Amino acid sequence: MAALSQGRQHARDAGGDLLLAAPDQLRDAVALRGGDAGNDGVAVAISKRIPVAGGMAGGSADAAAALVACNELWGTGLSQEELCTVGSQVGSDVAFAVLGETAIGRGRGEQLTPVPSAASATYHWVLALADGHLSTPRVFRELDRQRQGREVMEPGLSAELIQALNSGDPVKLGATLSNDLQEPALTLFPALRKTLDAGIEAGALGALISGSGPTCFFLARSAAEATTLANALSGAGVCRTVAIATGPAAGATVI
To answer: Residue 139: which of 35, 212, 81 has the closest Cα?
Structure first.
């Protein structure tokens, strides 16, 4: 119990409230199925390489990792689909972090439909990490304010986006990127406009704020162009630091 207590404190210090909720939610789900996850506690430590409150669903990814790990550790035997269901009760983005790859989310983002992508598709992304953070609830409140008095339709699926993903063509994909939270985030953090503009000027195929921000991400044509783009952003002084990533990426796995 001491180890569990220490683990909880460590996780809470790192902003891991979702992670702490995940094992408890898993126990409850197993109990509802008539199973038994045992009484063993689990010590949790988080080693983060992305910023807290960066709009990158880091907390959700941590929670997904905890679900997958505890499912294995406790031998509860839940399938990936069942873990996604449990994850959706922990947080809106947790199910996707369990599933991974490419998917369309509906509802709060927890109703997932995998999207087939070209088998050879690898996308090269550059992340511009901002010097600061944005509160997700505050960004959503700003979105509500901006939409006040306007009729907002339920967004439909973008046929162009689906076709771009099916083709694996980064040029087509870059042209279809959009984020309803971008304008609210820019209103609250205007300096991000310079970051987005710098990426486009440096040759990005697409530029967007990640989630509720303030991280910005850029799509490059190739690994070499991603490196060039990252260097350009770093030299422009429009962000704190940059990182390069590739995708699609698998969901949480035990290693």
So the answer is: 212
What's residue 141's pLDDT? Answer: 95
Looking at residue 10, what DSSP letter applies? H
Which pLDDT value is given to residue 2?
27
**Over 80-102, what HEC string results?**
HHHHHHHHHHHCCCHHHHHHECC
Mean pLDDT of 114-118: 79
Q: Which strand (E) or helix (H) includes residue 223? A: helix 223-236
Residue with tokens 């199973």: 35
Handedness of CA 177, 180, 181, 182 (dihedral sign): positive
Query: Coil, helix or strand for 207?
Result: strand
Write the pLDDT tens digit of every residue in 43-72. Answer: 877 777 777 767 888 888 999 999 999 999
Q: What integer pLDDT is reported at residue 8 of this predicted model?
A: 39
Asked if residue 253 lies in contact with residue 72, where contact means CB atoms within 8 angstroms, the answer is no
- Write down the pTM of the prediction: 0.82
Cβ–Cβ < 8 Å for 212, 185: yes
Taking a C-beta distance cutoff of 8 angstroms, is the pair 26, 18 a contact?
no
Domains of the chain (ranges, CATH numbers): 2-114 (3.30.230.10), 123-247 (3.30.70.890)
Q: What six digits make up the tokens of 54? A: 């960066």
d(CA 129, CA 228): 17
- Three-state SS for 219? strand
- Phi and psi at residue 215, in whole multiples of 5°? -65, 135
